[in-house]
Amino acid sequence: MQGLISTATVSKNIFTKRQEVLQELLRRARVEAGLTQTELAEKLQRPQSFVSKIESGERLLDILELKEICDAVGIGLQDFVSRFEQEIQ
Fold first, then answer.
1. Rounded CA gap, 30 and 50, in Å?
2. Considering the entire predicted model, what is its pTM?
3. Using an 8 Å Cβ cutoff, are 69 and 35 in contact?
4. Can you tell me the distance from the alpha carbon of 13 to that of 31, in angstroms, rounded to the nearest whole number?
5. Whole-angstrom Cα distance, residue 42 to residue 80?
6. Are 37 and 30 in contact (CB under 8 A)?
7. How far apart are the C-alpha atoms of 36 and 15, rounded to whole Å?
């Protein structure tokens, strides 16, 4: 089938420098909010493993989940993204 991209040929390396920065910023935001992983998970109504997997890079986030986390730790999404942009430059 020409013109289609096989998902088998597309690889994602989630352990990029940018991913590491994102993980660190998420962890830092949680800690600055004075929350443990368990407390953040409770605010998100998710298991603690959800937070752990995000902070370790085992699980990627979509924009809606990032917004939920930002709300839970008391940081605006735009502010978080600005911090991310600064860190990756």
1. 13
2. 0.81
3. no
4. 27
5. 21
6. yes
7. 24
Gap between the Cα atoms of 18 and 89, Å rounded = 10
Label residue 10 by pLDDT band (50, 70, 90). very low
Q: What is the mean pLDDT of residues 29-38?
A: 98
Looking at residue 11, its pLDDT comes to 46
Nearest-angstrom CA–CA distance, 1 and 23: 38
User: Cα–Cα distances in Å, from 20 out to 9, 43, 47, 56?
Assistant: 24, 24, 22, 9
The two structure tokens encoding residue 12: 């994602």
Write out the two tokens for 60. Answer: 């990627």
Element (H or E) spanning 16, and its range?
none
The answer to whether the CB of 20 falls within 8 A of the CB of 57 is yes
* Cα–Cα distance for residue pair 39/48, rounded to 1 Å: 8
